[in-house]
Amino acid sequence: MPSMAALASWRFKVFLGSGLTRWITPAYFPMRFDARDFLCQVPAGQVAEPCRHEVTAARWIQPAEALGRWRAGEFKMWGPTVTTLMYLAGYPDCSGLLAAAQGGTLGFSSLSAE
Predict the structure, then answer these.
(1) 3-state secondary structure of 22
(2) Which of 8, 31, 89, 98 shows the greatest Cβ crowding within 10 Å of its Cβ?
(3) Cα end-to-end distance, the chain, whole Å
(4) SS3 of residue 84 by DSSP
(5) How far is CA 63 from CA 25, 31, 69, 109, 114, in A?
(6) How far is it between the farthest Cα atoms of the chain?
(7) For residues 75 and 69, is the Cβ–Cβ distance under 8 A?
(8) Strand partners of residue 34
(9) What mean pLDDT comes out for the span 78-87?
(10) Which structural domain range is residue 35 located in?
(11) Is 92 among the domain residues?
């Protein structure tokens, strides 16, 4: 039986290394999470939809715009999200970020509070 992706003619171009980031809250935080961020670029014309069970709101914007809205108090975001967006804002576009990932030059350091 064909997969759902094959039936829908979906195509994926995914960086198949380790993910971009992994954030685990320290044990002393009252709310716990283990969040991973991965890199991928969808083909032109394909629309990505956020999982509405995981977030309270979602929109697709550039990292610099999200950070500006966070600084202005328009967006509420956790520290790991802000830090990841600051890192992503250093790349002019997705292709530059993917090239750095494939070339092994991402340089995103893991942080730990434990």
Answers:
(1) strand
(2) 98
(3) 46
(4) helix
(5) 22, 25, 10, 18, 28
(6) 51
(7) yes
(8) 24
(9) 88
(10) 11-102
(11) yes
On the question of pLDDT at 96 being above 90, the answer is no
Task: Find tokens 């009252």 and name the residue.
Answer: 30
Partners of residue 82 on adjacent β-strands: none
Q: Is the pLDDT of residue 54 over 80?
A: no
Task: Tell me: pLDDT of 32 over 70.
Answer: yes
**Sign of the alpha-carbon torsion through 26, 30, 34, 35:** negative
Is residue 57 over pLDDT 90?
no
Query: H-helix or E-strand containing 70?
Result: helix 63-71
Mean pLDDT of the chain: 78
| Polymer length in residues for the chain | 114
pTM: 0.68
> Considering the domain boundaries, does residue 61 fall inside one?
yes
Residue 65, pLDDT score: 95
* 79 CB-side CA count, 13 A: 9
Instruction: Name the residue with tokens 């328009």.
Output: 74
